[in-house]
Write a structure and sequence with these properties.
With 852 residues, the protein is α/β, with parallel strands linked by helices. Among the domains are: 534-636, Leucine-rich repeat, LRR (right-handed beta-alpha superhelix) (Alpha-Beta Horseshoe), CATH 3.80.10; 687-847, 3-Layer(aba) Sandwich (Rossmann fold), CATH 3.40.50.10140. 26% of the residues lie in helices and 15% in strands. It contains 21 helices and 40 strands. It has a 23-stranded mixed beta sheet, with helices on one face. It has a five-stranded parallel beta sheet with strand order 37-36-38-39-40, sandwiched between helices.
Length: 852
């Protein structure tokens, strides 16, 4: 909610130096937006006489009546309120007596009634308490009587925006000081007032008017003497018109000569291009104007000589002027010695660089700067703010700031508010906020903070005075209790964690927040918690927002926490649980009901009785109040359900426990006798191979089958020299044999396992060169296993045996697998004898078949 109010609050500026104090005071209640921005939940009903439909806020201080084509007369509302708003009706005339019953009103708005053409004089005669009157957006209302406002002796603000008026004099004659002696603010914006003549404001001679707004009126001429009757005028808004700088300079000079001391001048949207008119700026520099608004013009380059010396200027608004460059001395103290607030938001500045800032500033707004087409991220130079020791408010929202470091905000020792919302910040360096020791408000909403890191204490060190911390929509999934960042913020009063991905939050996380008043956890993924949070942490926020989470029922810990928060000392505490997924059945709500009946305090029971959070299931109770279900528990036979549930727990639990014990015992036995089991499996494979998977492959068939290789050589890399000798003796002397050797014959890029399988199948014989290194190699063990399966697969009782064993030297028994042990014990193998090599090679040839 602070995210919504911040842009509005940032424009507040007080020339007397109390800007920061007033701003901080206004942020104290950021969790509760103004009532007129809220929905209108209270239905007052339809007024029979007028046909208008009326609704009100919870406190019924504001009543709104509307009706489109039904509401034809001014409504008669019997309930008293502070404000009445009559909108979007088809009322054509408002007559004397229609408002006599509303003497209690302080605010009256008659807006957007497109058929309203006439308001009879004397209509407001009884509204002696009225302070604010708006008659706006009634486009058919083209004139008002000079006696229309009689009776409004306490009226301070009069708004006549966007009606059908085209002559100022026809309006001001009704605003004579004798009729409106207390009038302070007049808004005539968005009317067709093309000219303001010399006598336009003459009827208001002697008025106490301080603020005049005539923006967006298509004005093309203002007489130099037109504002002279308004002796007490302080604020003048003439933006978005068609006035030239000479006209403006003329009436400003005349006003200055007549001692009309303006303090605020709005020149926004007047079409000034390239740079502000220098002659007009020189005139303004001579006046008493302290706040100058030049927004919505076009000054792409703000150079060092753009502005003359302007001693009185305390606020300068240059938002959305399409600036892409600011000179290093454009706002130097020598030109603006009293400048305290500078607004440069909504421009195309690529970042903040040294000497672009005025050292005497209290408020700096650089939000929403998109940069040029070539700008990727918004840059903040190292130590840019070193000399900005007086700065209290810094707004950097809506900028593409990628990361912030310990040097980014160095020098901002007196900073009170830092707004970094809606950026692209994904990295916060350690000690980033160490320099901002007096910071009270930190807004980091809508940044991907947790994209590649967890939030830690080191990042937020130095925030001992922080009171408002906003982490809305930052992707936060959890907080680390061992490195609790909130230990750095002992004075925190408002913690906004809305719209993150929190499944839970712990008491340890909350413990440091003893001064917490508002905790917003809305729009997360929180479920019912099983351990007390607030009772265990000792934290008592006055406002706890848990709307739109995944809470399905009330655990005992939740009820204890709610009871703790609603103690008599905290009678104003608000706990919002709307839009959760409450399951209204016996299993979810029976224990809640029992606890409330036995242990619930009067305050706790009243909270549940008056609550409006709804059931989401089952279908019978969908969209009905949880409180209604709790009062119906007695008649829903939940006691019998509870007894049956206890029996079913025993029935389901006992077999499950027995099954788990048996599985554990079997697992222990399997692990203990795993060696024997492997050997038994090995023997079983051999038996199965001999009895069940034999193929009727006769010796003749083997002879007839075309093999690519005579033999596949399975060997260890360390024995490759012996393999080279084998290639020499078997492939170069008759009878010539074709051997498959992995280093030579495997296709480059193929998978090794697939190549081995393919080569074994394409070879008539498989030769295993068994050595100590062979027995230790995992790949050779695997090839041995494949060769044995290959032999079993072809075994059919004939003399053909594709497996040939060659033993190279001594092989240690500890490296022999069960398969190798079995093969060496059951098959005749050749042993390499270096002293009788000719005989060895002869026997090896014979092993490949005497027919060769």
């Amino acid at each position: 909610m602070l995210c919504i109010l911040l842009p509005w609050l940032l424009v507040i500026f007080y020339a007397n130096g109390s800007m920061i104090d007033d701003f901080v005071a206004m942020t104290n209640d950021v969790s509760s937006p103004r009532e007129d921005y809220l929905a209108l939940p209270v239905e007052i009903g339809t007024d029979r006489k007028s046909g208008c439909i009326c609704r009100a806020t919870k406190s019924q201080k504001i009543i709104v009546c509307f009706g489109n084509y039904v509401c034809r007369r001014f409504p008669k509302v019997m309930k008293q309120s502070d404000a009445l708003k009559v909108r979007t009706t088809v009322i054509e005339r408002i007559l004397k007596g229609d408002l006599d019953e509303f003497s209690f009103l302080t605010v009256l708005e008659i807006d957007a009634n497109h058929k309203l053409t006439y308001i009879e004089p004397g209509t407001f005669r009884n509204l002696t308490k009225l302070q604010h009157l708006s008659i706006s957006y009634n486009t058919a209302l083209r004139a008002i009587d000079e006696h229309i406002f009689e009776g409004l002796g306490n009226l301070r603000n009069l708004t006549l925006v966007n009606n059908g008026f085209d002559n100022v004099l026809h309006l001001t004659v009704a605003m004579r000081p004798s009729i409106l002696p207390m009038l302070k603010a007049l808004d005539l914006s968005e009317n067709s007032l093309e000219l303001i003549n010399e006598d336009s404001f003459a009827p208001m001679e002697g008025t106490s008017l301080r603020k005049l707004d005539i923006n967006l009126c298509s004005l093309c001429y203002i007489h130099p003497n037109s504002f002279l009757p308004l002796k007490k005028l302080k604020e003048l808004y003439i933006g978005d018109n068609e006035l030239n700088s000479t006209l403006i300079g003329n009436f400003l000079m005349n006003m200055m000569n007549e001692s009309i001391n303006l303090t605020y001048l709005d020149l926004s949207g007047l079409g000034f291009r390239r740079q502000p008119p220098k002659e007009l700026l020189h005139v303004i520099a001579q006046t008493s104007i302290k706040k100058l608004n030049l927004a919505h013009n076009q000054f792409e380059s703000i150079n060092d000589d753009t502005f003359p010396r302007m001693v009185n200027i305390e606020l300068l608004d240059l938002r959305r002027v399409q600036a892409i460059y600011v000179g290093p001395y454009a706002f130097d103290p020598s030109k603006f010695p009293n400048l305290k607030a500078l607004f440069l938001g909504g421009n195309n500045l690529p970042g903040i660089h040294q000497k672009h800032l005025s050292t005497q500033l209290l408020l700096l707004d650089l939000s929403n700067n998109k940069g040029t087409h070539a700008t990727v991220f918004y840059e903040i130079d190292r130590d840019t703010f070193v000399q900005s020791t007086k700065l209290r408010i810094l707004n950097l929202a809506y900028n593409k700031i990628k990361s912030i470091f310990d040097y980014t905000f160095r020098g901002l020792e007196k900073l009170k508010l830092l707004n970094l919302e809606n950026g692209t910040i994904f990295f916060i360096g350690e000690g980033t906020f160490k320099s901002t020791k007096q910071l009270e408000v930190l807004n980091l909403a809508n940044n991907p903070l947790t994209a590649n890191q967890n939030l830690t204490c080191a990042q937020f060190e130095g925030l001992n005075y922080l009171r408002i911390f906003i982490l809305k929509n930052c992707g936060v999934k959890r907080f680390n209790d061992d490195d609790n960042l909130f230990e750095m913020m002992p004075n925190l009063t408002h913690l906004i964690l809305r719209n993150n991905q929190l499944f839970y939050i712990t008491a340890e996380t909350l413990k440091p927040l003893k001064n917490l008043q508002v905790l917003d956890l809305s729009e997360n993924l929180l479920i019912s918690w099983w351990r007390p949070l607030f009772l265990a942490s000792g934290v008592k926020p006055q406002q706890l927002l848990l709307t739109n989470n995944k809470i399905s029922h009330f655990s005992i810990s939740m009820i204890e926490d709610i009871s703790y928060l609603l103690e008599e000392s905290n009678s104003s505490t608000e706990i919002d649980l709307m839009d959760n997924v409450f399951v209204c059945d016996c299993s979810a709500m029976y224990k809640t009901y029992l606890w409330l009946e036995v242990n619930g305090s009067i305050i706790l029971k009243k909270y549940f009785e008056s609550s409006n959070f709804l059931c989401s299931s089952p279908d019978l109770w969908e969209d009905r109040r949880v409180a209604e279900y709790l009062t119906s528990v007695k008649s829903l036979n939940c006691l019998m359900y509870a007894k049956i549930s206890n029996v079913m727990v025993i029935v389901w639990t006992a077999p499950s426990l027995v099954t788990i014990v048996l599985i554990l015992l079997i697992g222990i036995l399997l692990y203990k006798y795993r060696v024997y089991i492997r050997y038994w499996i090995f023997l079983g494979k051999i038996a199965i191979g001999r009895k069940f998977i034999r193929r009727s492959v006769k010796a003749d068939d083997v002879e007839q089958k075309g093999y690519k290789y005579d033999a596949f050589i399975s060997y260890c890399f360390e024995d490759r020299d012996f393999v080279l000798d084998m290639i020499t003796y078997l492939e170069t002397y008759p009878p010539y044999l074709k051997l498959c050797v992995s280093e030579r014959d495997f296709e480059i890029g193929s998978f090794l396992s697939e190549a081995i399988l393919s080569s074994i199948n394409e070879s008539k014989y498989v030769v295993l060169l068994i050595s100590n290194n062979f027995a230790k190699s995992q790949w050779c063990r695997w090839e041995t296993q494949l060769a044995e399966y290959h032999r079993l697969f072809l075994e059919d009782g004939t003399s053909y045996d594709p497996l040939v064993l060659v033993r190279l030297g001594h092989v240690e028994k500890k490296y022999l697998t069960p398969t190798l042990k079995y093969l060496l014990k059951t098959k005749i193998y050749l042993s390499w004898d270096e002293n009788n090599s000719e005989e060895f090679w002869k026997k090896l040839r014979n092993a490949f078949g005497k027919k060769i």
